[in-house]
Amino acid sequence: MTIKLMSVASEIYPLIKTGGLADVVGALPGALVGQGVSVRTLVPGYPAVMAKLGKIKIVHRYPDLFGAAASLLAAQVEGLDLLVLDAPGFFAREGGPYGDHGGNDWPDNWRRFAALSRAGADVAEGVLKGWRPDVVHVHDWQAAMTAAYMRFGPAAHVPKLVTIHNLAFQGRFAADIFPNLGLPPEAWGVDGVEYYGGTGFLKAGLVSADAITTVSPSYAQEIRSPVHGMGLDGLINGRVDRLHGILNGVDTDIWNPVADALIPKAYGARGLGKRAANRHALEDRFGLDHDDAPLCIIVSRLTWQKGMDLMIDAAEHLVALGGKLAVLGSGDHVLEGALLGAADRHRGRIGVQIGYDEPLSHLMQAGGDAILIPSRFEPCGLTQLYALRYGCVPVVARVGGLADTVIDANEAAIGAGAATGIVFAPDAAAALHGAINRLAALHADKPLWEAMQRAGMRADFSWTQSAARYADLYRSLIAEAA
């Protein structure tokens, strides 16, 4: 029997994306088809989403959803079966999904994503004629309240799973919003939405879920500690029997160097020489010198979490060793300025583009020699998986999904032909400098470097295994609820 799954998320590729969450939410439905799971995904009706909808059907109307008129729309877009919460008062805004052009969070985010979650719970309760999910899978704090609304409502018996993509983002708001959430009084408490005297959306989801997943096995263990638990380690340890670490996969149709229309020259593991055309195009795009020095890339949010403050000095060290650096990302304005300043000082050796550009990210993976990921914590990471697939050697901190997916080029791994990258201690400038030294030495040994590239390209990080694990978990939750 096919399982009917509703996924609830704040973004989905290719309609709206700020990071890896969108990639996962967009790829998982297709991966689950082969596991006997049919997915409908509920997302907000941002302008970017509404613009891509073709034929739509209004399946439910809200005269007043947290103070705004709204409708649920059904649509099929690029193979995705969607439910879209069309609420112009909440989502028809210029800026990003979560804030304005200046990077400031929308002050009514609690109301916007409570509305999304309320709609998710309503679908679980059966407001759609002829369709009701067997399981509800919600992603991060923006959708986590779906589980809480279900728990305290008629859909309490429907299995619900919450996936943590990044525990640092929790959806914490003042206590005085609680009366406006439409929850019963008993939902306010340690076993409900109350969180350190305020309202916690992710916390509410975690205590209400029948299962909790993280996006890598190592991250599932790391968040049980005070260092990485972000104040929720006690709750998570109390529910460790419900905790599962399932590694993210990549969409191997979108990220495929053999057939990537976004790069100048397609190639496979046996044709690494063809990457030269992509490297040349990448150098041109960032105004970098054409030479044989190691060309490193960064595709990242430019934040403290991602270790970008460590990269300011490390970029100078890389240039001193003769290397080059191309950076694509946005985030902390101070870090953006520091990286732009480094590019100005080292023209031809460092290039920086502020913002995000999906086609450019493909070119960077296809033309770069190595990708630098010095994160202080990393729930999974997808850029290192894309890099492995494209023969761009990952240089990563030993945390979370980075530790789970990259095999360090130590003597044993090199001897066995298993090395796929360089792994170093997190949150340490000296360790990052040492990793860059190793990068330069390994890159100078062309046969060894190409062996590492091919080993990475052979690794299987498709959704096949992870989708099977999710499907097994869904089935176990359905059986438990029966």
TrEMBL record:
UniProt EC number: 2.4.1.21
Coiled-coil ranges (or none): none
Domain Glycosyl transferase family, chain residue ranges per copy: 286-440
Domain of life: Bacteria
UniProt-listed Gene3D superfamilies: Glycogen Phosphorylase B
Catalytic activity: [(1->4)-alpha-D-glucosyl](n) + ADP-alpha-D-glucose = [(1->4)-alpha-D-glucosyl](n+1) + ADP + H(+)
Sorted UniProt keywords: Glycogen biosynthesis, Glycosyltransferase, Transferase
Cellular component GO terms, alphabetical: cytosol
Keyword check for RNA-binding: no
Function: Synthesizes alpha-1,4-glucan chains using ADP-glucose.
Protein family membership: Belongs to the glycosyltransferase 1 family. Bacterial/plant glycogen synthase subfamily.
Protein name, per record: Glycogen synthase
Record gene name: glgA
